[in-house]
Design goal:
Blueprint (H helix, E strand, L loop, with lengths): L1 H19 L7 E2 L4 H6 L4 E2 L3 E6 L5 H16 L4 E6 H7 L4 H6 L7 E6 L2 H11 L7 E7 L7 H14 L2 E7 L10 E7 L13 E9 L5 E8 L4 E4 L16 H9 L1
Parallel strand pairs: 3-7, 3-8, 4-5, 4-6, 6-7
Antiparallel strand pairs: 1-2, 8-9, 9-10, 10-11
Length: 258
């Protein structure tokens, strides 16, 4: 009897360890950014948890765009579930279907779910990850969420591994904490490369601060809407005069006197 229980317990532990580890042959999806893909050993793992953090509300829009780009790369032609906490919508605004379409994401593949609070959003995302017909699930929450702890992240990771569906967690105005995330990113806005265009190219400052199977890094990325991938940020082609605050005091005084 004891030996049977010991064998069963060992089998369960082995199964859990296999799910929490990286199974052989787990597919990765390239971002298109050569340096980032090299550090990621080929790209993002599909059936895994990935976290994206925006520092305060001012970088919420660019972090949302980054998550949309990651989702675009991950889903192919499969549906995307985007679960958004009501408070996150009030603070950052509702998702714009026309805006996502401008980024290259097909709105016809997107299903949005509104949750009254973070706990409800977490449950909805967990349930959605059980559907292996999806390409990805986005969990969009605002602020410090006590329910999204290490245990909750482990559940999301196990669900993502079991269904091979990516889970992208967008955290705005939150502090990173312990989790089982495959990768963790901190995203900020970056200047567009050209001031002559009516609309600059989508540019972002992406810092990889957690990578379970590789190195870390920080890059200026340009999102290519038509191609649906990230590229190296282009250097500014024109001479830019330094801002007045960065010039020597004598130079500013001489110009005013002239």
């Amino acid at each position: 009897m004891n030996s049977a229980r010991t064998s069963t317990l060992a089998s369960l532990r082995g199964a859990i360890g296999h799910l929490e580890g990286e199974p052989d042959g787990l597919s990765r999806v390239a971002l298109g950014h050569v340096s980032a893909d090299a550090v990621l050993q080929g790209g993002l793992v599909r059936g895994a948890l990935h976290e994206v953090f925006a520092e305060g509300g001012r970088h919420g829009a660019v972090a949302t765009g980054f998550v949309a780009g990651l989702a675009h790369r991950l889903i192919g032609r499969r549906p995307l579930i985007w679960v958004q906490q009501d408070f996150a919508e009030r603070e950052s605004g509702a998702l714009s279907m026309s805006g996502l379409q401008e980024l290259g994401l097909d709105p016809r593949l997107l299903v949005t779910v509104r949750a009254k609070d973070a706990e409800t959003a977490l449950r909805a995302a967990s349930d959605a990850l059980a559907c292996d017909a999806l390409g990805a699930v986005v969990l969009d929450v605002w602020g410090e969420v006590r329910a999204l702890d290490l245990v909750a992240s482990r559940r999301l990771t196990l669900a993502a591994r079991a269904s091979h569906v990516a889970c992208l967690v967008l955290r705005t105005a939150a502090t990173p904490s312990a989790s089982t995330a495959e990768t963790r990113w901190v995203v900020r806005s970056a200047s567009s490369p050209s001031a002559t265009e009516a609309w600059g190219a989508p540019m972002l400052d992406a810092q990889l601060v957690r990578n379970r199977h590789g190195q870390l890094g920080r890059w200026i990325m340009e999102w290519k809407c038509d191609e649906g991938l990230f590229r190296e940020g282009a250097a500014h082609p024109e001479f830019m005069a330094p801002a007045a605050a960065d010039r020597p005091l004598e130079a500013i005084a001489g110009r005013r006197a002239g």
